[in-house]
Amino acid sequence: MNTTTLNPTFDTLRDDCQLTLDRLLAAAGAGLTAPTVMALIERAEAWRRAAPQAWRTLVSEVMAPHPLSALVARCPMTARARDKPRGYAGDAVMLDYIYDRENVATLQLSGDERAVFRTVAESPTCASVDYRRQLIAQRIDARAARGPLQLLSLACGHARELDLSAALREGAVTRAVMCDQDSHSLEELARRHAARAAVQTRPLTVRQFLARASEVTALGAFDFVYSAGLYDYLDQRCAQRLTRCLFERVAPGGQLLLANFHPANRGTGYMEAFMDWWLIYRDEAQMQDLCAEISPSELAACEIECDPFGNVVYLSLTRRAA
């Protein structure tokens, strides 16, 4: 491929990228430091935004093969996303590194590994992941305050938001059906909540929801339905269809909550270049468009909001009461 045709400034950008990575690698001779890692995160984002059409070429030709890429991959979170032991980048174990930073940091990490891990795990992007967990737990508790609550989650992972829910601990959640295609995640979730009969795991997939499989329709209706990290991997047409199918699981007066990373996320460059973690980003208008297959007559409310960091956008749909 003639990369100069991708963008008239590509050669300049490629040279800047190469020289900067070389400089940062030289500076890391005595060990990676937090300022060096933060500079790498910021420069990766700047390069991505400078030439979006040439970005994948820049990653494959310069950034991924650079020795600095192997060095930052000594961070356990960066390495797990890149290596994808379960077939995808943002698996439940990798997200646990964000939620439980202190315990991960106490592992036998070298100075370099600790510097990369702590800097990445405490970045605004990861802060948004942690905020997402807290927000969902707050929504669960708020809805449970109205009466006994039944909830459904698709692509639940380890469902760490349940660990934060006072309503679940106090028995106000009468049924929590947690669905995922990853059997390892479901096993960990079931083990951790073995004493809570309300928490039920189901090996259900997006395809089964889209097909309205008998296993899905048999679940019935729920007061609160949510999906936290799934939509980042769905194209718009599939996401619209799934939104319709999930909304069918919402009881009258109930709510559907969906989250998606926003194009304004400032950590995307590092995620794509060094973690090989590529998402589908949506802005407010694209989130609104997820309602395309839902009749306005079914909706009591449609709300869109971003998190305090501007990294994740939320769509909340409330079904009209009967």
Structure description:
The chain is α/β, with parallel strands linked by helices. It has 3 domains: 1-72, no CATH class; 73-122, no CATH class; 126-319, 3-Layer(aba) Sandwich (Rossmann fold), CATH 3.40.50.150. The chain is built from 16 helices and 7 strands. It is globular, with a radius of gyration of 21 Å. The termini are far apart. Mean pLDDT is 93; it is low at 1-6.
Please outline what is shown here.
By secondary structure, this protein is an alpha/beta fold.
Largest sheet: 7 strands, mixed
Structural class by secondary-structure content: alpha/beta
Strand % is 15-25%
Task: Give the end-to-end Cα distance, rounded to a whole number of Å.
Answer: 59 Å
Fraction of residues in helix = 40-55%
**Tally of helical segments:** 16
Strand order of the largest sheet: 3-2-1-4-5-7-6
User: CATH architecture of the largest domain, please?
Assistant: 3-Layer(aba) Sandwich
Encode the helix/strand succession as letters: HHHHHHHHHEHEHEHHEHEHHEE
Rg (C-alpha, Å) = 21 Å
Average per-residue pLDDT, rounded, comes to: 93
Weakly predicted, low-confidence segments? 1-6
Total count of strands: 7
CATH class of the largest domain: Alpha Beta
CATH topology of the largest domain: Rossmann fold
Please specify the SSE layout and strand pairing:
Elements: H1 10-27, H2 34-50, H3 55-63, H4 67-72, H5 76-83, H6 92-99, H7 101-105, H8 111-121, H9 124-144, E1 149-154, H10 166-169, E2 173-179, H11 183-192, E3 199-202, H12 206-210, H13 214-217, E4 222-227, H14 236-247, E5 250-261, H15 268-274, H16 284-288, E6 299-306, E7 312-319
Parallel strand pairs: 1-2, 1-4, 2-3, 4-5
Antiparallel strand pairs: 5-7, 6-7
Helix pairs in contact: 1-2, 2-8, 2-15, 5-6
